Amino acid sequence: MTMNVIGKPVARVDGRDKVTGRALYAAEFNQSNQAYAVIVNATVGLGRITGIDQAAVAKMPGVLSVLSHLNAPKLAYRPHKGSIDPKTGERLHVLQDEAVRFHGQPVALIVAETLDSAERAAAALRITYEAQRPIIDIADPDARAIVPESGRDHTRGDAEAAFANAPVNLKASYDIARENHNPMEPHATVAVWKGDKLTLWSKSQYVVNEQAEIAAIFGIPLENVQVICPFIGGAFGTSLRTWSHVTLAAMAARVTQRPVKLALTRKQMFFTTGHRPRTLQHVAIGATQDGKLTSLIHEGTGETSRYEQFSEALVASSSYLVSCPNVTTRYRLAALDTGTPVFMRGPGEASGVFALESALDELSYKLNIDPIELRRRNEPKLDEGVNKPFSSRSLIRCYDVGAERFQWLNRMPQPRSMLDGRLRIGIGVASATYPAYQAQSSARVRLLASGIAEVEVAASDMGPGTYTSMTQVAAETLGLPIDKVRFSLGRSDFPPAPSHGGSWTMASVGSAIRAACISVLEEAKKRPSTDRPLEATATTQRDAGVAGRFSMHAFGAVFAEVAIDPDVGTIRVRRALGVYGAGRIINPLLATSQCTGGMIGGIGMALMERTVLDRRDGRPVNAHMADYLMPVNLDTPKIEVQFVDEVDPHVNPLGVKGLGEIALVGMAPAIANAVFHATGKRIRRLPILLEDML
Ligand code: MOS
């Protein structure tokens, strides 16, 4: 198949709009006569509200309304389990009762003429509580352990017996900190009621779900809610769900009969918009002297809230990443007095693969086998977890290509053997993997008499370049140049798309666009001379037969070099390389940017990011950009990305596997393994800190 547009490094079609400010984000959809809402958050970590002095602030200048459980409208909160919401538990019912379930829970809302007036009143509002000590530490013996209803345990063979009988074995435990997504753009919603119809300009990775969620909460028909979100300033998963601030914005607009804008502060982004759950993991590996795995036990526990069971694929990749006859994986949750976590880039896999790939690295030193060679000796021929062939798997090719480009063979194998002046140098490697999903999606294409094609899907673009890559798919299929395609997304009244996450947007939305384009071309053949626009809508999903026959995942090999100052413990990533086998690459420019960003996220996970909670009340003590550290330019060295040619005829018609999530997976273990190589110190807790080096 020769491609004219797909596979080309097309620059972002929305790039000019973004850098000139013409691209509007949720908080920029200002309305005439707009009022401003500010949330007041609970200052205790668990308990109940005993008093709120609403009258005192209601009289302050500019204040239009003060809402709390005492006077807020009772909302329907009809059941609605969108595909993104935890299947078990009930979502936070905001301002509906006096209970405080976690620190930072919204307990009151001020609506005022100006943001300034609303903020002043919010600061002045006096609330009294009856407080209890919350349980916020996953390792707290009082934390309630739950077997998640989503059940993900896997067993093959007898891993316990094989571990006991293994010639070589090791056991290790891993602790990965809670992280918050911290995109540049904070959450924001502008809400407008016209009669019983609600329009929301709202930051969302899933506009049709936000529409359904808000309709269910307010007990109004789906078609009465319109959600609009043309641009997103980064999200990494935090905008997958519709959180309580969207409900509050709509509530404020209804109570005051005014358009209302509600934007979260950076601090509030740490309270109620999800987080990567802290995880505790235990890995036990048994192997032969020549490095063949005989036993693998991987147990992991993740945080959830008391009111919902958030679950992710923490230990799932241990069932297929390496070949091993005896495997047990177990996944548990610890219910804490915190808000519900949510998916964060590389959800589950990023944390689970850190544990597995750290343990494999440790085994390689124990056996004195090169870490890449160890992966090679344990490369499976098929997915042993489900006993199906992989639709394609290029892991070893990624290692080969990466080893050559990173000059792996120049590395001295012994730990603490490489120096640059007084700096200790270490080079590490780790595997990356993520499932190649495809969800149901629809798309609509209109061919105008002017020769322009209009394409519409209720998809989102949180930054990977969806506008551009989808334009390429449509242009390619229709045989049109890029500038003849107008692609629109981010409206809930467009044909429905799945959540913009899980690395499935191109597989899902791209397949639907391709099908709609094929169908409109057939229409054009039937009616060659028409002056009316031709239109076609298509809905696609994964072929069930193919899904039953194959295991479908992307794979990658990630290399990192660190330089550590032995006197002060600073760890610098000097260079990094990610090599990925992810099917067809629609746009190598966007794909490289996507992976570079993900790898930088992995540097954050390895060395910087952690949300620290005050043990007394669950307050995030570093809820601001000064103390929640993330990599900046000086922390991000030369990062290189390479894709191996991979033709996957099974995965979907476009042959794509997705890149957004896998790009973060593997980076943290590659860095931790490099730190071990540099120093001989095996750090099993993330982030790795300066003091760990001293
Ligand atoms: Mo991705 S964590 O599904 O936004």
UniProtKB/TrEMBL annotation:
<dbReference type="InterPro" id="IPR016208">
    <property type="entry name" value="Ald_Oxase/xanthine_DH-like"/>
</dbReference>
<dbReference type="InterPro" id="IPR000674">
    <property type="entry name" value="Ald_Oxase/Xan_DH_a/b"/>
</dbReference>
<dbReference type="InterPro" id="IPR036856">
    <property type="entry name" value="Ald_Oxase/Xan_DH_a/b_sf"/>
</dbReference>
<dbReference type="Pfam" id="PF02738">
    <property type="entry name" value="MoCoBD_1"/>
</dbReference>
<dbReference type="Pfam" id="PF20256">
    <property type="entry name" value="MoCoBD_2"/>
</dbReference>
<dbReference type="Pfam" id="PF01315">
    <property type="entry name" value="Ald_Xan_dh_C"/>
</dbReference>
<dbReference type="InterPro" id="IPR037165">
    <property type="entry name" value="AldOxase/xan_DH_Mopterin-bd_sf"/>
</dbReference>
<feature type="domain" description="Aldehyde oxidase/xanthine dehydrogenase a/b hammerhead">
    <location>
        <begin position="20"/>
        <end position="133"/>
    </location>
</feature>
<dbReference type="InterPro" id="IPR046867">
    <property type="entry name" value="AldOxase/xan_DH_MoCoBD2"/>
</dbReference>
<protein>
    <submittedName>
        <fullName>Xanthine dehydrogenase family protein molybdopterin-binding subunit</fullName>
    </submittedName>
</protein>
<dbReference type="GO" id="GO:0016491">
    <property type="term" value="F:oxidoreductase activity"/>
</dbReference>
<dbReference type="InterPro" id="IPR008274">
    <property type="entry name" value="AldOxase/xan_DH_MoCoBD1"/>
</dbReference>
<dbReference type="GO" id="GO:0005506">
    <property type="term" value="F:iron ion binding"/>
</dbReference>
